[in-house]
């Protein structure tokens, strides 16, 4: 009864038809939006077409059709809408997002955060893998300014590296090496500009 009242209150505030629905067994379904804020490239199957509705209905895993892999950057702050259940965990949301984008990286590389705005500040909090995102959405209401979900990379110190394969670890080393070189170039360019200004002044 309490959940029913919360859902009715939630649906009364919805303006885009994305309502929550209560099931006979007490569970409920609804929608969440996840912002993808990934700074590093993801690994996907090479030369594979996007997943069709037919593939999704037949549960065809296109990633299994080739062993070839390639890396690319997902558009920064891309948004994906998911229809989930009250029993769907954070872990399942992460796996679902990776499957939709055909990302074959280990799910442990990623974490789901809740983003909140308070007193003009944006606060991020990492969600446990066993948390239920739809329940958090229900409590917060449909306003994404109050609460939104963000997929980010896990901090490297929090990743269980033993769960990765050798190729995955080698790929991650390549990415970190590229990031290091980019940072070095940024610092070098910064001080080169300072040097030029000083020389001009002299």
TrEMBL record:
Gene Ontology terms describing biological process: signal transduction
SMART domains: RA
Main location: cytoplasm
Keywords of the record: Cytoplasm, Cytoskeleton, Metal-binding, Microtubule, Phosphoprotein, Zinc, Zinc-finger
CDD domains attached to this UniProt entry: RA_RASSF5 (cd17220), SARAH_RASSF5 (cd21892)
Database matches in Pfam families: Nore1-SARAH, RA
Annotated GO CC locations: microtubule; nucleus
Subcellular location: Cytoplasm, Cytoskeleton
PANTHER family noted in UniProt: RAS ASSOCIATION DOMAIN-CONTAINING PROTEIN 5, RASSF
Annotated protein name in UniProt: Ras association domain-containing protein 5
Organism of origin: Eurypyga helias
């Amino acid at each position: 009864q309490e959940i029913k009242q919360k859902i009715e209150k939630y649906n009364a505030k919805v303006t885009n038809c994305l309502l929550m629905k209560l099931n006979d067994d007490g569970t409920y379904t609804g929608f969440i939006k996840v912002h993808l804020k990934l700074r590093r490239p993801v690994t996907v199957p090479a030369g594979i077409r996007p997943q069709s509705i037919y593939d999704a209905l037949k549960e065809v895993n296109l990633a299994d059709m080739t062993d070839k892999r390639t890396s690319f950057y997902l558009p920064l702050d891309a948004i994906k809408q998911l229809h989930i259940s009250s029993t769907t965990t954070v872990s399942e949301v992460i796996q679902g997002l990776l499957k939709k984008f055909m990302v074959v990286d280990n799910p442990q590389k990623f974490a789901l955060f809740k983003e909140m705005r308070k007193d003009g500040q944006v606060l991020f909090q990492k969600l446990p893998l066993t948390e239920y995102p739809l329940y958090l959405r229900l409590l917060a209401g449909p306003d994404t300014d109050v609460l939104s979900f963000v997929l980010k990379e896990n901090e490297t110190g929090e990743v269980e590296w033993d769960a990765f394969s050798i190729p995955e670890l080698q790929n991650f080393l390549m990415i970190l090496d590229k990031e290091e070189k980019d940072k070095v170039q940024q610092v070098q360019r910064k001080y080169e500009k300072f040097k030029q200004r000083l020389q001009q002044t002299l």
